[in-house]
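Before relying on records like the one below, remember that each one covers exactly one chain. Contacts with other chains, cofactors or solvent are not represented anywhere in the record.
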Amino acid sequence: MSNSKNFVIAIGGTGMRCLESFVHTCAMGLYDNMEFNVLTLDTDYSNGNKERTTQLIDNYNQIKSDVSGAEGKINNNTFFSAKLNLFDVVTDYNNQGRETFTSLTNLASESDELSDNKILADLFLGEAVQEFNLAHGYRAQTHLGSYLMYHALVELARKIKESKANETEQEFGKYLELLYEAGADAKIFVFGSVFGGTGASSIPVIPVALNKALSVFAGGQQAISEDAKYGCTLLTEYFRFTKPKDSQKTTKKDAVIADSSFFTLNSQAALQFYDEDPTVKSTYTKMYHLGWPKEFLSIDFSKNKNEDKTITGGAAQKNGCHIIELLCATAAWDFFNSESGLNEAKASVLYKSVNYKNNEINFSFNDMIGDAENGNLFKEKFGNFVGFMHLVLTENDGALGHDGTKLLLNRIAESTNDYSTLESQYTINLTDYFRKFGYSIEGSNFNAGWLYQIRSSFNGKLILDDKAFTSNPKELKKLEPGKLFTEKEYHWKDTMISGDTYDPFVKILKDEDTKPFENQNVETTREKFIAHIYNAINKSIKTN
């Protein structure tokens, strides 16, 4: 069982996309010598954003595992250095008798015993709110969602205690045990928005709900340490989608549908609540306020989808990635890597601004995890990983459906044969990860992965030269993986005549000082291969 003191919780669709960015920062190597217990928490079992993120984590862990399939371990100063333990929990509203608030609470009963409860429910919840289908989330009804999420987690803990939980539900009990074992050293970061439904509903109640759930699960004998540290994103509106038509609201189950035109008001109300509520301010240590300029709220999750109605959830809710989600991931980095302000009695709210000029937002590496030393760290990790991606996808046609990692191995065999035993399934898994991270090409179709999606989500600069993100086939063929920065001091060593960076990189792999070293904590051939590539890229830059 994990002995990690670091916990991540992703709630709702937006929380899943923030977690997706977090996983990619782990792949970049930003979390050396760290392990995370990751809880995905949603009401929508089949949600497309959730499925995409959990598949990404599975892909990450396949790369980390050894030949026998055993879990990978923590590494240092290399790519994929962090260890991720996934716990997938769904508050299931699909079963009969659990579809709506009315059925869930049995308020439809005519008994006198429940009549007062019905009167109380009617006082706070309209009929439409009591009757809509909960399977696709809380639909921006935060007053309902907070109540239901709290009780859902407590109910789940009770099922586990009474041995009525299925295998998936038991994952929650394991997560609670880990929280208890972490004691005062526990650091818990929550990804979610404050303008929607599930995330906005859940963030305020998560610390209290987890503690109550643990108490129920352990028969009142355990509690999360009062000294555990909680952080979260206060993510306000940054996208819109098709406004629901009246014709879509003709049935009780769809009488309430989230409307992005109300997100601004939702955000304002949420921020006022967080500023005033004493429970939230005493349970959270750091809250990171992130938002997007109103004049740039042009990201439309309905665009090019030919939607004739608003998508409320399910597999069809698979939205593109946005730069703000990467910034949420970097907020998590600050929380887990900084001790500043963690022992204050009252929560602190943190924010930063970035360069805005001529209707463009320009992101430098100093905008991600801080300036000076931390900024340089992000520059190195981000730039090197994108370079590795282009080695696999662009130089070796991994984007075209070939096993780009295998072709890379064939090429570097002239410098080292240490990795000739790497299995095809491993190389396929690594290539597949880079397709998710970067891009793929099917026929004439360019499919943007995470990196290309966040780059296209705003007008401006993202750390690297724009050519690093080109989708033009002719430009891709000319792209040098070692010349992605506008600043030449960050380029890899090249040949004097052609300017090629690939061939000099391959030759550098021969050097003894690029081979994995003890401090990297790599043992398997898979780990050593990743570390060797990492070291060679670093030396290519230093000897340019």
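The mean pLDDT is 84.
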